[in-house]
Design brief:
The chain is an alpha+beta fold and 70 residues long. 17% of the residues lie in helices and 31% in strands. Strands 2-1-5-3-4 form a 5-stranded mixed sheet, with no helix packed on it. Strand 1 (2-5) and strand 2 form a beta hairpin. The termini are far apart. The mean pLDDT is 93. This is Thiamine biosynthesis protein ThiS.
Length: 70
């Protein structure tokens, strides 16, 4: 199944949740999965819904990392 993640096509398994995708990306990039925000099809997905939100063919996601500093 194909989705678009941050503007790039990505192949994922059917039934993949947002939480699973975040953990996959964290493993590949070393990002902290606790400090990300997710937009799915132009709507913010609350962190409390990541584990139960199943992705579907053609979904468009933007995942951004929070960065602290001062």
């Amino acid at each position: 199944m194909q989705i678009t993640l941050n503007g790039a096509a990505l192949e994922i398994a059917p039934g993949t949740t947002i939480a699973q995708l975040i953990h996959r990306i964290a493993g590949e990039t070393g990002r902290d999965p606790r400090s990300v925000a997710v937009e799915r099809n132009l709507e913010i997905v609350p962190k409390s819904e990541h584990a139960m939100t199943v992705l579907t063919e053609g979904d468009r996601l933007e995942i951004v990392q929070f960065v602290g500093g001062g």
